[in-house]
Amino acid sequence: MNGSIEDIENIVLGINDNRVTYIRFKRIGLIAALNEGIKLCQTKYLAIIDSDDIAPTNPIKNQYFYLEKNPEIGLVGTSIKYFVKNLNESIWSIRMPEDHNKIMIGLKKSKFLLHHSR
User: Checking CA distances to 107, which of 13, 15, 20, 38 falls within 20 to 30 Å?
Assistant: First the structure.
């Protein structure tokens, strides 16, 4: 937690799953909080999801199974769309290709970015 206005503490503490750990940092800033959280991870995979992110499907589940079936893959991502006030007012979006070669070409040309949701 890094200064979120939602009652995240009570929400997370209400999750009955021993794989979920709640850690509270003082207001140290987003990057420092992410880095501290990453250092504490003891898991095979890591996903960063902000409290205001919306996912209409199960991207984490789908990405997990994809990684498990393809051990030569080390990173997965998704397309992103940035909304202002509601789901009908998108400001911008980035549609990522799904083909590995197209992704690599785009990354080398700085056409795409590896983006943590924010």
Answer: 38
pTM of the prediction? 0.66
- Which residue in the block uniquely carries the two structure tokens 């206005």? 5
- Cβ partners under 8 Å of residue 66, min gap 6: 73, 76
| 55-112 pLDDT, tens digit each | 777 888 888 999 999 999 888 877 777 777 666 776 777 777 888 888 888 888 887 6
DSSP category for residue 84: S
> Are the C-beta atoms of 48 and 116 separated by less than 8 Å?
yes
Distances (CA, A) of 41 to 4, 47, 64, 97: 21, 11, 16, 29
Residue with tokens 């990522």: 96
Residue 118 burial class via C-beta count within 10 angstroms: exposed 0-12, middle 13-18, buried 19 and up: exposed
